[in-house]
Amino acid sequence: GVDLDAVGGWLGSYGGEDSPDDISRGLFAGEVGTPRLLKLFDRLDIKTSWFIPGHSIETFPEECRMIVEQGHEVGLHGYSHENPISMSSEQEEAVLLRCIDLITELSGQRPRGYVAPWWEFSHVTNELLLKHGIKYDHSLMHRDFECYYVRVGDRWTKIDYAMPADHWMQALERGEETDLVEIPANWYLDDLPPMMFIKKSPNSHGFTNPRDIESLWRDQFDWVYREYDEAVFPITIHPDVSGRPQVLLMLERLTEYIRSHDGVRFVTFEEIADDFLAKHPRQQP
């Protein structure tokens, strides 16, 4: 999965909305990093899923057309990488509808998948996705290498030190399972936190050796390959990060390593969702 955050990422999440320099880094992601990744995927002969904020679609129309023309899937990822928790339900739905229209116009078909900006779900995100016909999500983390069906209505009690302790000593209450497929998100298979410098992030990295990340990802893959008969290994990358030479080379090495194992396939996220739906139809209550 490729998140084309670009300028939108600096507007919505990374604290660069007032910095011409940070905005220029977003322009790099759209105009330089994206073509480099497309060239890599063409060389490796794999199809990927791009989750593109509406801002990126309208700011980089040529590069987004290249993504579609090369046969990659396009999914939803907010407009300006807005945090769903910070929006009203009306704002969140307005963003969703605008971006569905933008992706439909770009790709010729309605998007089937969604990635929440900054991997933050609001209390109504799952209901909105179901309401507007989205097949799968890639934001939640109940599991790491197995797809599952998203629940709605989970409830938990926050600690309130102004109240007696009995007020908050309550177990989490699970809601009801829905038809929305979850392809789990995974911070430990994401290129951005360890390999992109963010000035306003107190724990920013950005100078991690990609070979160290490659080792971490290989170890995870080796364990999953040994322990599971059926699994997903959903890596998330960004042109902001993986458009850099050192990371492109790492991705080449990693792809060839993973491909050397019998029974492994590189597929789009929609193919993953369709395979899960076919093999594990939801049991109706």
Radius of gyration over alpha carbons? 19 Å
Number of strands: 7
Shape: globular
The order of strands across the largest sheet is 4-5-7-6
**Helix and strand pattern:** EHHEHHEHEHEEEHHHHH
Strand content: 5-15%
Low-confidence segments = none
Count every helix, treating DSSP H or I runs of 4 or more residues as helices. 11
N→C terminal distance: 33 Å
Mean pLDDT: 96
- Helical content (DSSP H or I, runs of 4+): 40-55%
For the biggest sheet, the summary is:
4 strands, mixed
State the secondary-structure class.
alpha/beta
A few lines on this structure:
This protein is an alpha/beta fold.
Task: Describe what this molecule looks like in 3D.
- With 285 residues, the chain is of the alpha/beta class.
- It has eleven helices and seven strands.
- The chain has helices spanning 6-12, 20-44, 54-59, 61-69, 89-107, 125-131, 192-195, 210-227, 239-242, 245-259, 269-279, and strands spanning 2-3, 49-52, 73-76, 113-114, 136-137, 148-152, 176-182.
- The strands form two sheets. The chain has a four-stranded mixed β-sheet.
- The protein is globular and about 55 Å long.
- It starts with a strand and ends in a 6-residue tail after the last helix.
